[in-house]
Amino acid sequence: MIIMKFGGSSLANAERIRHVVDIIKMNIDEKPLIVLSAMGDTTDHLLEAADRAIAGKVCIKDIRKLHLATAEALEVNADVIKDLFDELKNLLSGIALIKEFSPRTKDYLVSFGERLSVRLIAGYLNRIGVEAKFFDAWDIGFTSNNDHNNGEILEESYARIDEKLGHLDSHYAFTPIITGFIAKNKSGNITTLGRGGSDLTASVLGAALRAKEIQVWKDVDGILTTDPRIVTNAQPVKNISFEEASELAYFGAKVLHPRSIIPAMCKKIPVRVKNSYNPAHPGTLILSMIDDSSEMLRVLTFKKKVTVVDIVSTRMLGQYGFLAKVFQIFDEQKVSVDMLATSEVSISVTLDNRENGIEGLRTELEKISNVTIKTGKTIVTMVGNVKRSSEILERTFEVLNASAINVQMISQGASKVNISFIVDDKEADTCIRELHRAFFENS
Ligand code: ADP
Ligand code: ASP
Ligand code: MG
After folding, report:
1. 3-state DSSP percent of the chain in helix, strand and coil, to 5
2. Which residue has a Cα nearest atom 26 of ligand 1?
3. Residue whose CA is closest, atom 7 of ligand 1?
4. Do domains 2-218 and 297-441 have the same CATH topology?
5. Pocket perturbation via mutation, ligand 1, pick of 200, 216, 220, 440 by most ligand atoms within 8 A of CB
6. pLDDT for 22-58, tens place per residue?
7. Would you state the CATH architecture of domain 2-218?
8. Mean pLDDT for each consecutive 10-residue tract of the chain (443 residues)?
9. Mapping DSSP to helix (H, G, I), strand (E, B) and coil, where does residue 182 land?
10. CA of 319 to the centre of ligand 1 (A)
11. How much is the pTM?
């Protein structure tokens, strides 16, 4: 049994869906379970529909048109999705009426994208003679916590998923087509797992069913040496460890959902990142151990628009008391930090760009320290061979020096595969291009 997850770009229109179905058919002997995202940019279109509703206009023309045109082109009876359009319109009318769009309502709204795509594609598979059944993830045991917009799948889900679908390994009578990205909390409300969350659904499913492999199909030839939108000749990476993949996803590489690697890693299930536009390419294989110490650096990644907070002790507290108090404040304010650097009297941390909560944090921190908040920063992260970290740092500083880019904070992660530093947002693209040239384009 394998898991095959197809992202929005792989499902952009009827033609792309036919390609995806060819890929599924080629792998049918592997007993694939299919996880699907919403078609194309449907999630964004749903969010735009909410903006329009708040402004008083209920309109789902673009979403309806894409799905109905796709159903027609694939010769699928559109009755399987018409009820969902009615439900969606009712929801938007409600939003227009009360002009309120809570995190809970947002999850309910964006869930329509995945619910539409599984019905359509299961319909198409059945029409061409491949027996398929669609499932909304909550019906096969996906239960999350109450964190709307960024839910965590609860541990108890794993046994329930196994109970619902585990038997398929021996009695594989149909291909399950499962919604990515969505779940329900214990109160029965729909939740989502964060943008790009279908990767996480695939990983949880693979771990719960002890699949042979989890495949995530994208529009690139695997994990690339850096973001191809910044460096057009970024190259696919053949192998990478779970630990490295986790770091790069967490530190901004848009190719994988930040938490998606963890379930697969816990059960040691290989994850393969493949290109649905180029299925013959082997892609990237993510495994427990990578025996390749010849490479210095594997991937260069970045996260823009982060905020740096410098906290300098006023020495009212000793060092131990100071650190404890600072972290207590972060905990109370529910602010999590990505990167951290300390000296005896100061701490610098980075936070995701946030409009809310930062003034509350400042007020509390200022009771024990002098605080400087700097926005518009980028974390650049180098994921690679820690045994060669001195060489990595030496070459990095040569490049940055030559480009007159000033490093504002630096840390080497405890997982020992990442070195991160901060530059200004406006220097980020140059920094990535120059580092890519130095590490990957010169032998
Ligand atoms: P999907 O939604 O189909 O699952 P995503 O759009 O979420 O796929 O992720 C694929 C995209 O991630 C690529 O098109 C690419 O532009 C971007 N990307 C950013 N960094 C990387 C990287 N290091 N390797 C590969 N792709 C990357
Ligand atoms: N459709 C969701 C998104 O666009 C989830 C996903 O694609 O994985 O973020
Ligand atoms: Mg995505």
Report:
1. 45, 25, 35
2. 255
3. 255
4. no
5. 220
6. 999 999 999 999 999 999 999 999 999 999 999 999 9
7. 3-Layer(aba) Sandwich (3.40)
8. 97 98 97 98 98 96 97 96 96 96 97 98 97 98 96 98 92 95 98 97 98 97 97 95 91 90 96 97 90 80 94 79 89 87 86 75 92 94 85 93 93 79 96 96 76
9. strand
10. 42
11. 0.93
Q: For residue 379, give both structure tokens.
A: 């974390």
**CB-ligand 1 contact for 220 (6 Å cutoff):** yes
Distance 286 CA to ligand 1 centre (A): 16
Helices (H) and strands (E) counted in the chain, each on its own, are 13, 17
CATH number of the domain at 297-441, please?
3.30.2130.10
Q: Show the ligand 2 pocket: residues with CB < 6 angstroms.
A: 7-8, 37-38, 43, 113, 180-181, 195-198
**Half-sphere exposure of residue 423, counting CA atoms within 13 Å on the CB side?**
23
Residue boundaries of the structural domains of the chain: 2-218, 297-441
pLDDT digits (tens, 9 = 90+) for 348-395: 999 876 666 788 899 999 999 999 999 999 999 999 887 788 889 999
Cα–Cα distance, 96 to 94 (Å, whole number): 5
